[in-house]
């Protein structure tokens, strides 16, 4: 937290302040608060997915499965076992993290398309399992759960979600800045070179999956408590693709990028809701245009702006990477 | 001292190394020559465990490495600078070098960074540049620099001259000599037999997966067979 407070970036403090007073700005409108909460939940998931894809270079198109597991974990533990909130929420992360470990183990051997198919299978199967395991998940009718009495109002729980989002963002930021973050980047850039420099590649690939699923599971748990109900249709494979869209549109390997993506993919459907039937067309068009004109995601707008102001200051040393280089990463040949 | 005894490696059914015996004495440069597909790179990859040996033994200072993983091999001071440079293209020069020190927790990392810059002043000029934007020769320097950041006892150098302008090749080999003088043993794999024989102390010639010839580099240079096969007459 110290780092956040002593931060030299005033906009960050402004952002946190904005989050704290948001319900009052929108006059306690339940609709607006709920949009904000969904942005937070998607932002946590998108950042976690970005750790895996953007920083670690391991693809997953089944991340909604982790959200589901997080949601069901809190629902089952609260409604069936009556465990308290302070225990169930961390457990949502832990249980999802353990499942992530099992998904991560094959990732050690698989990469690229094969990993994509494995994670896709995972994402597809979770809603099916939830649907058919009646005794545990309530099948079609889902499970409802109650928030603890000290967090019963939406406003109280809104603050829980805001605090969790800020905390998780800060944690992910620090993980990515740490030694471990450097190992992730090295693995993404070249597995052979990473291995030759002594990075334990299988270990870190598994760790990536565990961290990513842990935080996504927490997001799923928060979702469960916010809605008070989980069902098999909450997070389907479509959600997985949306999460993927968020990080690509926002900008890969960038925490602010993932957040921007989450905002766009949550707000845009709400804004276009009145155009019945064409919502998806508008979203699709927006995504295509963004990718076409900003292939490195919306976050690159800020980079371009920064580079411009730097150049004005007479310092044009900073080389912007061309697209070609971005795509021209040396691919490991199987040895 | 790095010592390989009777090492066998298979790629599927292909018997790539058929019992290689080889020793790198402390403080020496040892070169490994041979034609395409003779198993030179495979030998290095086996030592760093990018590929797995099926039979045999190898050890550093008497400690066997047969059961080690790649990261454990690095921790024991054997560092592989792989073929085709393999720098991390989207990371800066500095980040690349710091990743080289990944397994170290001592306080001398900053000093070693400066040492790398005295070997390769060019890297210092480009410290904040993305590695992918460097020229081929500079990327090779970076790859060697990155290996040095891991404080190797034995440096495994795979084809440092590959695709690099002749004048830079000379410069790089001069630096390799200097690195060796400063106390690092080097096992060098090289197509350019002339260059390799002139900077190394001892050489092995690999043919079809086994050592066909070995000897002092100076003697091998005068050996008729070596002259005919690898030095062009």
- Number of β-strand runs of chain A: 2
What proportion of the residues of chain A is helical, as a percent range? over 70%
> Oligomeric form of this entry?
heterodimer
The number of helical elements of chain A comes to 16
Beta-strand percentage of chain B?
Answer: 25-35%
Distance between the termini of chain A: 45 Å
Shape of chain A: globular
- String of helices and strands of chain B: EEEHEEHEHHHHEHEHEEHH
> What's the average pLDDT of chain A?
86
**Biggest interface, which chains?**
A-B, 26 and 36 residues
- The chain-level mean pLDDT of chain B equals 91
Question: Largest sheet of chain B, if any?
Answer: 6 strands, mixed
Structural class of chain A: mainly alpha
Strands in their spatial order, largest beta sheet of chain B: 6-7-8-3-9-10
Helical amount among residues of chain B, as a percent range?
A: 25-40%
Q: Report on the biggest sheet of chain A.
A: 2 strands, antiparallel
Q: Round the Cα radius of gyration of chain B to an integer and report it.
A: 17 Å
Distance between the termini of chain B: 34 Å
CATH H level of chain B: which superfamily? P-loop containing nucleotide triphosphate hydrolases
Task: List descriptors.
heterodimer, A: 335 residues, mainly alpha, two-stranded antiparallel ribbon, 16 helices, 2 strands, 73% helix, B: alpha/beta, four-stranded antiparallel beta sheet, 10 helices, 37% helix, 26% strand
Give the SSE layout:
The complex is a heterodimer of chains A (335) and B (233).
Chain A: H1 2-5, H2 10-25, H3 30-55, H4 63-79, H5 85-109, H6 112-132, H7 134-137, E1 143-144, H8 154-177, H9 179-189, H10 191-196, H11 201-227, E2 229-230, H12 237-250, H13 255-271, H14 279-293, H15 299-312, H16 323-327
Antiparallel strand pairs in A: 1-2
Chain B: E1 2-11, E2 14-24, E3 29-33, H1 40-47, E4 55-60, E5 63-64, H2 70-75, E6 78-81, H3 93-100, H4 109-119, H5 121-125, H6 136-148, E7 154-158, H7 166-181, E8 185-189, H8 193-199, E9 202-207, E10 210-216, H9 217-222, H10 224-230
Parallel strand pairs in B: 3-8, 3-9, 6-7, 7-8
Antiparallel strand pairs in B: 1-2, 1-4, 4-5, 9-10
Helix pairs in contact in B: 3-6
């Amino acid at each position: 937290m110290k780092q956040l407070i002593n931060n030299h970036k005033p906009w960050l403090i402004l952002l946190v302040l904005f989050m704290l007073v948001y319900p009052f700005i929108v006059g306690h409108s339940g609709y607006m608060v709920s949009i904000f909460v969904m942005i937070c939940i998607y932002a946590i998931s998108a950042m976690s997915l970005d750790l895996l894809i953007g920083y670690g270079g391991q693809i997953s198109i089944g991340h909604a499965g982790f959200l589901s597991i997080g949601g069901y974990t809190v629902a089952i533990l609260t409604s069936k076992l009556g465990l308290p909130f302070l225990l169930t929420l961390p457990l949502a992360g832990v249980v999802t993290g353990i499942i992530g470990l099992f998904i991560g183990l094959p990732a050690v051997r698989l990469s690229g398309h094969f990993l994509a198919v494995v994670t896709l299978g995972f994402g597809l199967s979770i809603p099916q399992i939830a649907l058919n395991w009646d005794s545990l998940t309530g099948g079609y009718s889902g499970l409802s759960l109650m928030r603890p009495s000290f967090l019963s109002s939406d406003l109280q729980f809104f603050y829980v979600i805001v605090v969790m989002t800020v905390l998780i963002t800060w944690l992910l930021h620090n993980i990515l800045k740490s030694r471990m973050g450097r190992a992730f980047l090295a693995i993404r850039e070249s597995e052979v070179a990473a291995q030759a420099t002594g990075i334990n590649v299988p270990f870190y690939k598994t760790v990536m999956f565990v961290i990513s699923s842990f935080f996504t599971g927490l997001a799923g748990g928060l979702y469960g408590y916010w809605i008070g109900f989980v069902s098999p249709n909450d997070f389907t494979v479509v959600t997985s693709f949306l999460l993927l869209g968020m990080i690509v549109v926002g900008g890969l390997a960038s925490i602010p990028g993932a957040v921007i993506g989450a905002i766009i993919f949550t707000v845009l459907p709400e804004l276009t809701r009145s155009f019945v039937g064409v919502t998806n067309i508008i979203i699709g068009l927006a995504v295509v245009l963004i990718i076409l004109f900003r292939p490195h995601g919306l976050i690159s707008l800020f980079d371009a702006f920064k580079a411009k102001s730097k150049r004005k200051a007479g310092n044009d040393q900073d080389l912007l990477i061309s697209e070609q280089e971005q795509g021209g990463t040396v691919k490991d040949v199987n040895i | 001292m790095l010592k390989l005894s009777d090492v066998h490696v298979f790629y599927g059914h292909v018997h790539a190394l058929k019992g290689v015996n080889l020793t790198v004495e402390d403080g020496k440069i040892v070169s490994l020559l041979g034609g395409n597909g003779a198993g030179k790179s495979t030998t290095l990859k086996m030592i760093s465990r990018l590929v797995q040996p099926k039979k045999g033994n190898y050890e550093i200072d008497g400690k066997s490495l047969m059961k080690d993983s790649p990261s454990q091999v690095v921790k024991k001071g054997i560092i592989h600078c792989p073929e085709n440079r393999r720098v991390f293209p989207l990371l800066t020069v500095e980040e690349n070098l710091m990743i080289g020190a990944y397994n170290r927790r001592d306080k001398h990392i900053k000093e070693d960074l400066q040492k790398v810059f005295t070997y390769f002043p060019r890297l210092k000029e480009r410290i904040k540049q993305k590695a992918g934007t460097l020229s081929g020769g500079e990327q090779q320097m970076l790859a060697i620099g990155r290996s040095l950041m891991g404080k190797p006892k034995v440096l495994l150098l795979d084809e440092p001259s590959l695709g690099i302008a002749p004048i830079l090749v000379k410069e790089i080999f001069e630096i390799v000599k200097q690195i060796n003088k400063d106390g690092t043993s080097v096992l060098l794999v090289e197509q350019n037999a002339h260059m390799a024989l002139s900077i190394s102390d001892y050489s092995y010639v690999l043919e079809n997966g086994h050592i066909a010839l070995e000897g002092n580099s100076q003697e091998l240079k005068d050996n008729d067979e070596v002259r005919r096969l690898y030095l062009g007459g």
